[in-house]
Task: structure prediction
Amino acid sequence: MTRIACAAVLLLCAGCHSGADARREAEALINTDRAWSQVASAGTNADSVVTFWSENASVAMPSAPVVRGKNALRSMVVSSFAAPGFHISWTPESAVVSKSGDLGYTTGRNEISVPDAAGKVTKIVGRYLTVWRRESDGRWRCVEDYSTPGPAETPPRT
Result:
């Protein structure tokens, strides 16, 4: 699956916008990702979170089955918000938009706090790659979302 994600990213990069349009489109996409993070981080409105996914979107998280389709994604969000101690946030770091302007991706860091079977809340720090498609209404919507845990960033040596 990682090879498929890497191939998709390389294909997107090969056809990236150039110049001012590229910067403007990438900024619009990263702002969409930031807005989505704010809505999800609030943890109060599953329907608002779900509007950022396409109808057939997929989410792949470590040690979990892939979740596909808006109805399944909504159920995932509702159950996550209901879990005591659950919290999610992410910070987009980069965005790239294809030359055609209808596909793009964002990358960044994420933090997810989840309760284990005993109720102890654990914070998982990781990285993500989200593939976006501009839909017919002009909005960017997530079509593929991949997350992987990673070590917390360490300060540079002095």
The beta strands are 53-60, 67-68, 87-97, 103-115, 121-134, 140-149. Residues 2-149 form a domain with the Nuclear Transport Factor 2; Chain: A, fold (CATH 3.10.450.50).
